[in-house]
Amino acid sequence: MSSTTRRPLMAGNWKMNLNHLEANLLVQKLAASLTEKQLTDVETVVLPPFTDLRTVQTAVDGDKLLIGYGAQDLSPHASGAYTGEISGPMLAKLGCTYVVVGHSERRAYHHEDDALVNAKVKAALTHGLTPILCVGEGLDVREQGTHVAHCSDQLDGGLAGLTPEQVRQVVVAYEPVWAIGTGKTATPDDAQEVCGAVRQRLAARFDQETADQVRVLYGGSVKASNIASIMGQADVDGGLVGGASLDAEEFAQICRFPEHLAR
Ligand SMILES: O=C(CO)COP(=O)(O)O
């Protein structure tokens, strides 16, 4: 399968930004900025904070918007005495299709290790959510030149114990930590190097069909001005966009990247 048969995915990770009123406005503006064809060609997804999800669901359902949505994290548990946690069944009930798992900010600030990330990937799949499994190296690892091995290890850890059928349900996002929120984007070649290595690793650990089907995103200072060159890479199937997804017009321009490729 070539990259052209994997449907591009642009996912906006809002992180801890926007209240529910601002969320409603942004989703309406985003939908108004994209045509039905554009939303069909490029899967467009927003990942708001938990407190905005019900509002986003109401906007999407009420106006039948072709925008998907999901959460930024989930509990590995389905229910119970886990104060402050949100479960997979709760997210599924709100119509979420995606959930980010193992974002570098959660690995760094909440000490999430590969075992917990793996449990969360499994919880997402059990409850019918598509996990967006994040991998990525810090600057120290990049400078040592061991970034491919580092990301492969995180991939192995996140997908441990899964069948090839389950892995085909997963989206992988390569987000070099040194490029997140820094304005320092990886070059298209940097993105391709690791996204390609992720696909090779999937083929080696599972099978070629699985590797061909899994979508691999790039994230880290993605903007309207750099998305086309990143999407021009064979193994990059989309973007996980932080800061630029908080601006409806900028994110819509990112989602319209095929127009820039055609030029
Ligand atoms: O972490 C990111 C998305 O998950 C990337 O964030 P920025 O696009 O703000 O660099």
UniProtKB/TrEMBL annotation:
EC annotation from Swiss-Prot or TrEMBL: 5.3.1.1
InterPro entries noted in UniProt: Aldolase_TIM (IPR013785), TIM_sf (IPR035990), TrioseP_Isoase_bac/euk (IPR022896), Triosephosphate_isomerase (IPR000652), Triosephosphate_isomerase_AS (IPR020861)
Subcellular locations according to the entry: Cytoplasm
Q: Write down a Pfam family by its short name.
A: TIM
One Gene Ontology term of the molecular function aspect: triose-phosphate isomerase activity
Where along this sequence does the record place binding of substrate? Answer: 13-15, 181, 221, 242-243
Q: Which enzyme class, named as a word?
A: isomerase
Q: Which SUPFAM superfamilies match?
A: Triosephosphate isomerase (TIM) (SSF51351)
- Which positions are catalytic residues? 103 (electrophile), 175 (proton acceptor)
Task: Give the pathway listed in the UniProt entry for this protein.
Answer: Carbohydrate biosynthesis; gluconeogenesis; Carbohydrate degradation; glycolysis; D-glyceraldehyde 3-phosphate from glycerone phosphate: step 1/1
Segments spanning the bilayer are none
Keywords, A to Z, come to: Cytoplasm, Gluconeogenesis, Glycolysis, Isomerase
State how it assembles: Homodimer.
Family (UniProt): Belongs to the triosephosphate isomerase family.
Biological role: Involved in the gluconeogenesis. Catalyzes stereospecifically the conversion of dihydroxyacetone phosphate (DHAP) to D-glyceraldehyde-3-phosphate (G3P).
Name used for this protein in its record: Triosephosphate isomerase
Q: Which organism is it from?
A: Micromonospora parva
